[in-house]
Design brief:
With about 325 residues, the chain is α/β, with parallel strands linked by helices. The protein folds into 2 domains: about 160 residues, Rossmann fold (3-Layer(aba) Sandwich); about 160 residues, Isocitrate/Isopropylmalate dehydrogenase-like (Rossmann fold, 3-Layer(aba) Sandwich). It has 12 helices and 10 strands. Strand 6, helix 8 and strand 7 form a beta-alpha-beta unit.
Length: about 325
C-alpha cells in the first residue's frame, strides 16, 4: 500500500462516517466494503433496487418534485428517479440520512455528476461543480513530495474564466482539507508564462487568476504558467521573477477538459502514478465519482476521502 493511501485511511478511521454505495451489484465495490467494514474506515450502506425503502422513496420523490417542478419535472418523473439507487443515495446524503456517497464503478461519470447536481447543495462560494484527481507520482521531487491535485479532469469541457477561478478555489481547499497541503500553491496552466505568448486563451487564464484572487486570499494563486515554470524552481527563476507558486505548485489547474484528462492519464501511465478520483468538488455534501476502470483500492481510497470531507463538514457545523 502506498503512503498516500495509508494516510487517507488512517485519517478516515479517526471518525468513520455513514457512506452510501448505490452499486451493490459490482464485485469490486462489495470487496472494498468488506475491507472498509473490517478496518472501520466508514459505516457503509449498500443499496440495490431491491432494498430501497418505499416510504423514503415517496418522501424523496415529493421533495425532489417540490424543488424541480419549476423546471417542468413531474411527480411521476420524480418517483421514477427515486427508483434509481444513485438518486436515492444522493437524496439520502442531501437530507442527512448519510454523510456522503461513492459511485461510478458501474454508472458513468456523467450520471454521477448529474445526480449530484440535481440532488446535492452547491457551495455558493464557488458556484459550480467540478472534479479533481489526486496524483501521486513515485520518486518525484516536485509538488508535495510527488503528490498533486489535477483539476478539472472530468466535468467542465471549456471553462470560462469565472469557472476556472471556482475550480482553482475548490481544488485548493480540497488539497488543504484532505491532503494537508500547507499551503496549497495553485498554478493556472497555459502554453504561456507571464506574457510569453498572447491571445484570447492566455487572456482567459489571466482573468481567472484575477477573479480567484478577488474571491479569496486563503492561499497563493498564480498564472498564467507553463507546466515547467509551475513545477521546476530553476525554470521558474529563468522565466519569471518572484512568485509564491512558480517552481513549487502542488495544485495544477488545466485550461480545459481536454488538457486535464489527457495529462492525468499520461501521468498515470508514463510515470506509473497513482490516480485517485475523480473527486466531485463544489457540493456542500461530499461524494466521489469512481472510474469504471477502478480497482478495489480505488473504491477504498475514494471512500476514505469522502469520510474525511464529511469529518470536515461536521467540524464546520460545530464551529458555526
Amino acid at each position: 500500500m502506498d503512503e498516500i493511501a495509508i494516510n487517507l485511511r488512517e485519517a478516515a478511521k479517526k471518525n468513520p462516517k455513514i457512506i452510501v454505495f448505490p452499486e451493490a451489484g459490482d464485485e469490486r465495490v462489495l470487496q472494498a466494503i468488506k475491507y472498509i467494514e473490517k478496518e472501520k474506515i466508514a459505516q457503509p450502506l449498500v443499496l440495490s433496487h431491491d432494498n430501497l425503502d418505499p416510504k423514503k422513496q415517496d418522501e424523496f420523490a415529493h421533495i425532489f418534485y417540490e424543488r424541480k417542478q419549476v423546471k417542468g419535472v413531474t411527480i411521476e418523473e420524480s418517483r421514477e428517479l427515486m427508483e434509481n439507487p444513485l438518486y436515492y443515495a444522493s437524496m439520502m446524503t442531501r437530507y442527512g440520512y448519510a454523510d456522503g456517497f461513492v459511485a461510478g464503478a458501474v454508472a458513468t461519470s456523467s450520471a454521477v455528476i448529474k445526480a449530484a447536481i440535481n440532488c446535492l447543495e452547491i457551495d455558493r462560494s464557488v458556484g459550480l461543480i467540478s472534479s479533481c484527481f489526486i496524483m501521486a507520482v513515485p520518486n518525484c521531487p516536485y509538488g508535495e513530495k510527488g503528490v498533486f491535485i489535477y483539476a478539472d479532469c472530468g466535468v467542465i469541457p471549456y471553462p470560462t474564466s469565472e469557472q476556472l477561478a471556482g475550480i482553482a478555489i475548490s481544488s485548493a481547499r480540497f488539497g488543504r482539507d484532505v491532503l494537508g497541503f500547507n499551503p496549497p500553491r495553485v498554478a493556472l496552466l497555459s502554453f504561456s508564462t507571464k506574457g510569453s505568448a498572447e491571445g484570447r486563451w492566455v487572456d482567459k487564464i489571466k482573468e481567472a487568476v484575477d477573479i480567484a484572487k478577488s474571491k479569496t486570499d486563503e492561499f497563493p494563486i498564480d498564472g498564467e504558467l507553463q507546466a515547467d515554470a509551475a513545477l521546476v524552481a530553476d525554470v521558474a527563476k529563468k522565466k519569471l521573477g518572484d512568485s509564491p507558486v512558480a517552481g513549487k505548485a502542488n495544485v495544477l489547474i488545466f485550461p480545459n477538459l481536454d488538457a486535464g484528462n489527457i495529462c492525468y492519464k499520461l501521468t498515470q501511465r508514463l510515470a506509473n502514478a497513482r490516480a485517485i478520483g475523480p473527486i466531485v468538488l463544489g457540493t456542500v455534501q461530499p461524494c466521489s465519482d469512481l472510474s469504471r476502470g477502478c480497482d478495489v483500492d480505488d473504491v477504498i481510497d475514494c471512500t476514505a476521502i469522502t469520510v474525511i470531507r464529511a469529518q470536515k463538514k461536521s467540524q464546520e457545523k460545530k464551529v458555526s
